[in-house]
Specification:
This protein has 124 residues and is an all-beta fold. Helix content is 0%, strand content 50%. The strands form two sheets. Strands 2, 4, 5, 6, 9, 10 and 11 form a seven-stranded mixed beta sheet that branches. A hairpin with a 6-residue loop joins strand 4 and strand 5. The chain starts with a strand and ends with a strand.
């Protein structure tokens, strides 16, 4: 499975962005897809996930009400709508394809697939 993320950029606080992640290859092997982010000097943290079959979504508490994950099954793509951006949202955002379903999508496994990341910078 290959993942191509896009949509990052430099915006001012309060602005919106939409990130996209397109899956190719054996995308049918993934149970769900999601987004993590990593700010400079910090560990990678969970942002959101969506289950392919049901569309069930999960969002980290830090982004609930501001970020929304969605999917387009026909396009094998997921999206992350980022609203009311804050400087602390600045990070590289990575999309992930979870090879297996799990009760907690805030954790990733060594065998999950990762995209290359897209940088979101929010200025104050």
């Amino acid at each position: 499975v290959q993942l191509q993320a896009s949509g990052g950029g430099l915006v001012q606080a309060g602005a919106s962005l939409r990130l996209s992640c397109a899956a190719s290859g054996r995308s049918g092997n993934s149970a769900a897809m999601g987004w993590f982010r990593q700010a400079p000097g910090k560990e990678r943290e969970f942002v959101a996930a969506i289950v392919w079959s049901s569309g069930t979504t999960y969002h980290a508490d830090s982004v609930k009400g501001r970020f929304t994950i969605s999917r387009d099954v026909a396009k094998n793509s997921i999206y992350l709508h980022l609203d009311s951006l804050k400087p602390e949202d600045t990070a590289v955002y990575y999309c992930v394809a979870y090879r297996t379903g799990r009760p907690d999508y805030s954790t990733y496994k060594p065998y999950d697939y990762w995209g290359q990341g897209t940088l979101v910078t929010v200025s104050s």
